[in-house]
Write a structure and sequence with these properties.
alpha+beta, four-stranded antiparallel sheet, binds flavin-adenine dinucleotide, Uridine Diphospho-n-acetylenolpyruvylglucosamine Reductase, domain 2, five-stranded antiparallel sheet, 11 helices, Uridine Diphospho-n-acetylenolpyruvylglucosamine Reductase, domain 3, 26% strand
Length: 283
């Protein structure tokens, strides 16, 4: 860490929010797996202070008031291994388990993955597919924002000065789901394309469906037209509807060419991941 950066260890959320607002060059730090890599590579010249959030009690996963509340400081290992998550949210378990290797998952937090706001963050499509809401804490109190509306661009969020993510709130329901990612290798690689599929029973023979795509737009996006089509169809959906839904998913993707992949390949693989996810959920 740069010897000029000051590190703060607040004991309360209010203290953390106050430091964050008072010091424009301050950044929250949780597992440090994103932040310290950038800092060591000289990519954060504006950062003057780090605010360590690990002492703020953000590590709980609890069921209360019809919601599963996952503290933003929970590591990927903790999220993927928790019974409340394993029994309800398979897409999130799969997403958390595909972040880096063991060592990274033991340090990397859900709040850090979301706070980093990369469209390729692997926990984000699962959370969006599960209708997750971010509980924010700031100098003016708490507020909630649906995660699908939390990101405004790559690395950009609706967080206001002094605000941090306290927890994620997920409706308490048993879902079926899958998270699939395509990277340079089968594991330990940043996503070129990722897709989360979650669904739950809405009426006998019907399922409410959510599909979220990663790394094919400036932010993680939902495929609302495909969701509507499948949510209105009998479950499991007939083959001709699956073909239509697949075309709508591909249409929703807005990929670019970059150092990791090409847009045409990304677009085509979006359809392939959709098909595979649906097969996994139907099995
Ligand atoms: C070798 C390696 C492999 C990786 N592989 C993957 C991968 O496969 N998939 C993937 O998605 N990511 C991967 N990552 C990236 C990284 O591990 C994840 O994004 C991780 O979840 C970040 O969490 P963290 O706790 O380490 O965040 P930090 O590095 O501590 O912080 C990241 C950002 O989030 C902000 N932040 C932290 N906590 C909060 C909070 N409570 N509220 C608001 N903002 C907050 C910080 O200010 C910072 O901007 C990899 C990283 C490495 C080094």
């Amino acid at each position: 860490m740069d010897s000029l950066a000051r590190v703060h260890f607040p004991a309360t959320l209010s203290e953390a929010a106050a430091i964050l607002r008072a010091r424009p060059g301050a950044r929250l730090i949780a597992g440090g797996t994103d932040l310290l890599v950038k800092h060591r590579n000289g990519l954060l010249p504006e950062v003057t202070d780090f605010i360590d959030v690990t002492g703020l009690g953000l590590h709980e996963i609890v069921l209360a008031d019809g919601q599963v509340r996952i503290g933003s400081g929970c590591t990927m290992t903790a999220v993927a291994g928790h019974p409340l998550v394993r029994e309800r949210f398979p897409a999130l378990v799969q997403g958390a388990m595909q972040v880096g290797a063991f060592q990274i998952r033991n340090a990397a937090t859900l709040g850090g993955n979301v706070g980093n706001a990369s469209p390729a963050g692997d926990s984000i499509p699962p959370l969006v597919s599960l209708d997750a809401v971010a509980l924010l804490f700031g100098p003016d109190g708490r507020r909630t924002v649906p995660l699908a509306e939390f990101f405004t661009g790559p690395g950009k969020t609706v967080l206001q000065p002094g605000e941090l993510i306290e927890a994620f709130l997920l409706p308490d329901r048993r879902t079926a789901g899958a998270f699939l990612k395509l990277g340079e290798r089968r594991a330990h690689a940043i996503s070129k394309v990722s897709l989360a599929f979650s669904c739950w029973e809405s009426a006998p023979g019907r399922r409410e469906v959510r599909i979220a795509l990663g790394a094919v737009a400036p932010t993680v996006i939902r495929c609302r037209k495909a969701e509507e089509l499948l949510s209105a169809a009998p479950w499991p959906p007939p083959a001709e509807l699956v073909d239509k839904a697949r075309a709508l998913v591909v249409e929703a993707a807005r990929p670019i060419d970059d150092l990791r992949s090409q847009k045409e390949y990304r677009r085509r693989m979006t359809g392939v991941l959709f098909q595979r996810a649906l097969e996994q959920v139907r099995a």
